[in-house]
Amino acid sequence: MTGTLHIIGMGPGDPELLTLKAARLLRAAPVVAYFAKRGQRGHARRIADGHLAAGVEELRFEYPYTIEIAAEDPRYIAELAAFYDLCAAALAARLAAGPDAALLCEGDPFFYGSAMYLFDRLAPLGPVAVVPGVPGMAGCWTQAGRPIAHGDDVLSVIPGTLEEAALAERLGACDAAVIMKVGRNLPKIQAAMRRAGLAGRALYVERGTMTDERVIPLEQATQAAPYFSMVLVPGRQRPR
Amino acid sequence: MTGTLHIIGMGPGDPELLTLKAARLLRAAPVVAYFAKRGQRGHARRIADGHLAAGVEELRFEYPYTIEIAAEDPRYIAELAAFYDLCAAALAARLAAGPDAALLCEGDPFFYGSAMYLFDRLAPLGPVAVVPGVPGMAGCWTQAGRPIAHGDDVLSVIPGTLEEAALAERLGACDAAVIMKVGRNLPKIQAAMRRAGLAGRALYVERGTMTDERVIPLEQATQAAPYFSMVLVPGRQRPR
Predict the structure, then answer these.
(1) Are B27 and B57 contained in the same domain?
(2) Which chain B positions have a beta carbon within 8 Å of A17's beta carbon?
(3) Quick one: closest CA in B to A75, which residue?
């Protein structure tokens, strides 16, 4: 690979929450790649609207699944690995020829991002540079108007895919929490939150910083968006 | 208050990691306020260099302490509360007269930021808007070249001010960790990391994204910078 791959954090959704560095690299990129779910345009690609050069070449990487399968399922792991291999090969082919390329990533690339799997595959082959971004969770707690962690709070980021008992246990071991991957795990998360005695403090935030965002008490949520939804438990509010 | 207070996340240190929204609001702000340690210029203020309008009015809020005192010390709590009261009054006086003001905040404002204490005081009095930023920890794990959390990892953010046993216990209850407030807690953090069996995986990162940044294995760190230093434990790297 002679070109540089720039893996770019695109922030939580509001296109104005791109960094100056991300905007500069996007304008200069002759090739941009991004992940998208089947039948959808791609969230990271949508954020890039208005930031790309005319005539840019686009590589759209469509996930083989539209909904989440248990991460332990061996078929899922194998098929995703094959998918990431193909994506990495497509990028490596462009980069071998010389020009730089940008891989767009929602939020921050190294924080639960799919781009990490291409980083692992491509970094040994040539120059790969990463631009951090505003994580989706920061967009959510900002829009909720709730400081998330103070002083010596422990903040845990917990995937909603865990079992109810494990969720409740993790919640009991921190002062503030962010639960990601809500979707169809919503009722289980609500049950775990009651079990941990935190139901009254928890907020449900959907599409934080996007035009159709929604912030409500968790107990009032009845159906969660499969993506871009999070549950927040703001930390201890000490007098200061 | 008739003016709007914009609390602006300034990112981890590299001025190009400001968001487009932050840069726009900084250029337009007639008044900017920021915290600084005694004898120092102020990290958030330094990031703003080159982004402020000519003739901007600056309010410098100097912390009453230069080193950290135990957060539970009643004198510390009382003196900091009085300090934040004064800062809030100074901003409220400017905002009462009409023009907007910007309060600069390192990293993300709602993530362990001092600005939260002014938000608490001023939001009841008039319009306060918050702009999320790239958190310092995202700058650190990006510069370390290490994806921090994958799949269903639990990531905990833990203050280094906790006792050694509590630190080790929290470390044992997560897959990936970020330890903030390292400074003089470094030897205790190293001991807790050994106790949790994580010493081999932990990295010490100082001034991530700044020109004089440093990334080394935690076990090789002998003296930590009092600020802008963090310890990272990257999560499980699963085959995918």
Answers:
(1) yes
(2) 19-21, 131-132
(3) B240
Q: How many beta-carbon contacts under 8 Å exist across A and B?
A: 183
Is the domain of A150 the same as that of A224?
Answer: yes
Write the DSSP symbol of residue A51: T
- Contact criterion met (CB below 8 Å) for B54 and B29: no
Tell me if chain B has a CB within 8 Å of the CB of A149.
yes
Expressed as residue numbers, the domain containing B212 is 137-233
* Tens digit of pLDDT at every position of chain A (240 positions): 789 999 999 999 999 999 999 999 999 999 999 999 888 899 999 999 999 999 999 999 999 875 556 656 778 788 889 999 999 999 999 999 878 999 999 999 999 999 999 999 999 999 999 999 999 999 999 999 999 998 889 999 999 999 999 999 999 988 999 999 999 899 999 999 999 999 999 999 998 888 888 999 999 999 877 777 999 999 976 656
Q: What is the ipTM of this complex?
A: 0.94
Residues 9-28 of chain A with CB under 8 A from chain B are: 9, 11-12, 14-21, 23-24
pTM of the model: 0.95
- CA B240 → CA A79, A122, A224, distances in Å? 9, 13, 28
